[in-house]
Amino acid sequence: MAMIALKCPEIQVVVVDINEARIAAWNSDKLPIYEPGLDEVVKAARGRNLFFSTDVTKHVGEADIVFVSVNTPTKTQGVGAGKAADLTYWEGAARVIASCSTSSKIIVEKSTVPVKTADAIEKVLRRNCKHPGVQFEILSNPEFLAEGTAIEDLTAPDRVLIGGKDTPSGRAAVDALASVYAHWVPRERILCTNLWSAELSKLTANAMLAQRISSVNSISALCEATGADVQQVAKSIGTDSRIGPKFLNASVGFGGSCFQKDILNLVYICESVGLQAVADYWHQVILMNDYQKQRFVEQVISAMFNTISKKKIAVYGFAFKKDTGDTRETPAIDVCRGLMADGARVCVYDPQVEDSQIYQDLGTAKFEWDHPTPKSAPVSKDAISISHDPMEAAKDAHAICVLTEWDEFKAYDYQKVYDSMVKPAFIFDGRNILDHAKLREIGFIVYAVGKPL
Ligand code: UGA
């Protein structure tokens, strides 16, 4: 919304939320999320044509276009628990929109939702709006930005996708939204489809992206068993223009609030229409991701002479990727839990994640899947410590596990780190970002994902 406000000065954008603290933060100097470049965009537009408010009824009532960007987490109980998307917030938002609308509106699905959500939402809107003559046109406009590069992605998107009904009013609504993006996105990059294609494209894009990571991660296991180097393999296949070089970095596993949730959602949709083979195919992407995290933990344990009990292990990076403080579904949660379950004393350093978040993530019970993951062990507070200094985190540690690809990890003085550690000193590079030859020269025993020893 900040980007729309920045690029379209004549459009009034009001972001509303019932959470007062959050709106206050958006109106303050310290925004509630860390995202490179976002501060500048918000500051340029805020107070001009970008506003943040808790007065939902007033602003939704006045709007011509309403973007709904509420949470759609995975259901934790009831039918579809563990897979289906929980649409409670979406339905709640639709009821609010219906009750305060005195004029016709375009309703834009920004949240990632299951296919055919628009249908359900339309029913809620139509049956709850008391004002005669008010029409709602629902569009699906999924977001493809990635965290950490949001501003870049929004400034020059590969495409903007708008799905709408193939009726005169549906087409008019699609055109209205397209003209907003056309302020800065070339017309040929604005793709218009039917509603269901747009909804399904979002889930499919994430499933395909995650599948690339699980595919390359599966090969990383084979590389370790054979002496091949996964980075060489990735480069060799990535130069095939049909495959392409992006999203082939082997890692300790993918995380984030989107991939797992969206794939599970896709799996659930397939199951609900009776396509079990299709559901199993996509579910395997998640199973491979869990396997990769578990494999990492097992490698740490076996490399360190099959015992990590009472050993201090420094964890560099807790966020699910660099340049964000977001920890949702971060592989660090399962890895830390796995290490702690084997008795290790884990000391976490992350440049952006708040201490309270780390404690919360490691303390709460993980969703229990029907497949093997490092199970949630009862966590004692002594098993975790948090340091704000990477040198201090590594002091007296037996090993360092790199779990997020923060650039600063590459720049440390590893001789100094080595000197302060217990010997033999291990590094497990779960992101393949460090200079392994140099570390070995210093004296470290280095393990990396899919790389020869
Ligand atoms: C993802 C998609 O990339 C966006 O296009 C989409 O809009 C977004 O989900 C969403 O649905 O909202 P995001 O989760 O922010 O974006 O981050 P990604 O850059 O996709 O990274 C996801 C995870 O995969 C991270 O843990 C990352 O470290 C990992 N990853 C990524 C790898 O392990 N290897 C790679 O080669 C690339």
TrEMBL record:
NAD(+) binds at residues 17, 22, 70-74, 111-112, 147, 258-261, 328. Pathway: Nucleotide-sugar biosynthesis; UDP-alpha-D-glucuronate biosynthesis; UDP-alpha-D-glucuronate from UDP-alpha-D-glucose: step 1/1. The keyword Membrane does not apply. Gene3D superfamilies: Cytochrome c1, transmembrane anchor, C-terminal, NAD(P)-binding Rossmann-like Domain. Keywords: NAD, Oxidoreductase. GO terms for cellular component: nucleus. The keyword Nuclease does not apply. Belongs to the UDP-glucose/GDP-mannose dehydrogenase family. Pfam families: UDPG_MGDP_dh, UDPG_MGDP_dh_C, UDPG_MGDP_dh_N. It is an enzyme of class 1 (oxidoreductase). This is UDP-glucose 6-dehydrogenase. One of its GO terms (biological process) is glycosaminoglycan biosynthetic process. One of its GO terms (molecular function) is UDP-glucose 6-dehydrogenase activity. The active site is at C258. PANTHER family: UDP-GLUCOSE 6-DEHYDROGENASE (PTHR11374:SF3), UDP-GLUCOSE DEHYDROGENASE/UDP-MANNAC DEHYDROGENASE (PTHR11374). The lineage of its organism: Eukaryota, Viridiplantae, Chlorophyta, core chlorophytes, Trebouxiophyceae. Residues 314-436 form the UDP-glucose/GDP-mannose dehydrogenase C-terminal domain. It catalyses: UDP-alpha-D-glucose + 2 NAD(+) + H2O = UDP-alpha-D-glucuronate + 2 NADH + 3 H(+). Its EC number is 1.1.1.22.
